Amino acid sequence: MNWLKLYKEYWQEGSIVMRLLILHTVAYLLIGLTSWVCTLITPLRWWDLGLSLSFYPEWDKVLYHPWSLVTYALPHLNFFHFFGNMCLIYALLPVMAYRLGTRRFLWTYIGGIVAGAMTYLLGYQLLGTQTIPPLSLQGASAAILSVCAAAVMIDRKIFSSFTLRFTGNRVPPIPLWVFLFLVFLSAGRGNLGGHLAHLGGLLFGITCGLYYRKQAKRPASIFTSDREELLRKTRHSSFSSLSPEERRRLMKNLPKDKN
């Protein structure tokens, strides 16, 4: 197996969504493998290194582990939690990334992670332990909801022409809205902190989407900013540094010669 070729094809030339999938998958495998090795070395306790990356709403833990404001998106509660989020990233986010542009997509994704943690922290501090138990916060659901909300605020008809990447079949918008609502409620009845994190990511995405829409003076300006970003990347590196998807977007958005 040519690892250099795989690295170049899927990471160096891959889209931002492909890089997110690789990052989350590698992090999930490393956390699980490291926890298993540590448990073998010291079998008197079960190690779960994902808890060191998880977010907790107590101030002392936030100050002691400030990186958890972002790193909690890497560990997941179990395999089904991880697999579900990866399916959402693979199926939904390429359309959102195309609509937002790479830079806005990345800022909205990371901002949704931080906003989810901060909303959980604020809710816990206001309502207390009796209402919100200080459970660990894990997973990338807040970031996914943030990106989807931002893209919908820019283009409210984005789901009207949505096709499922697994089969290529067109999906009606109403089932997609219902599905996203179920994702919002997926934290469970006993995990109010998870619901608050989802709400924080959703509100952050809505705010970003409104800002992006206000910033755009005309609908085509979204594509213009994406084109300028790709041209800047080409000038900085070269045309070969663009992924196949980015090349297609660049050629599509280039002004056509009228002669």
From TrEMBL:
<dbReference type="GO" id="GO:0016020">
    <property type="term" value="C:membrane"/>
</dbReference>
<feature type="transmembrane region" description="Helical">
    <location>
        <begin position="105"/>
        <end position="123"/>
    </location>
</feature>
<keyword id="KW-1133">Transmembrane helix</keyword>
<dbReference type="InterPro" id="IPR035952">
    <property type="entry name" value="Rhomboid-like_sf"/>
</dbReference>
<feature type="transmembrane region" description="Helical">
    <location>
        <begin position="67"/>
        <end position="93"/>
    </location>
</feature>
<dbReference type="Pfam" id="PF01694">
    <property type="entry name" value="Rhomboid"/>
</dbReference>
<protein>
    <submittedName>
        <fullName>Peptidase, S54 family</fullName>
    </submittedName>
</protein>
<feature type="transmembrane region" description="Helical">
    <location>
        <begin position="174"/>
        <end position="190"/>
    </location>
</feature>
<feature type="transmembrane region" description="Helical">
    <location>
        <begin position="21"/>
        <end position="47"/>
    </location>
</feature>
<dbReference type="InterPro" id="IPR022764">
    <property type="entry name" value="Peptidase_S54_rhomboid_dom"/>
</dbReference>
<feature type="compositionally biased region" description="Basic and acidic residues">
    <location>
        <begin position="244"/>
        <end position="259"/>
    </location>
</feature>
<dbReference type="GO" id="GO:0004252">
    <property type="term" value="F:serine-type endopeptidase activity"/>
</dbReference>
<feature type="region of interest" description="Disordered">
    <location>
        <begin position="235"/>
        <end position="259"/>
    </location>
</feature>
<feature type="domain" description="Peptidase S54 rhomboid">
    <location>
        <begin position="66"/>
        <end position="214"/>
    </location>
</feature>
<keyword id="KW-0812">Transmembrane</keyword>
<keyword id="KW-0472">Membrane</keyword>
<feature type="transmembrane region" description="Helical">
    <location>
        <begin position="135"/>
        <end position="154"/>
    </location>
</feature>
<feature type="transmembrane region" description="Helical">
    <location>
        <begin position="196"/>
        <end position="212"/>
    </location>
</feature>
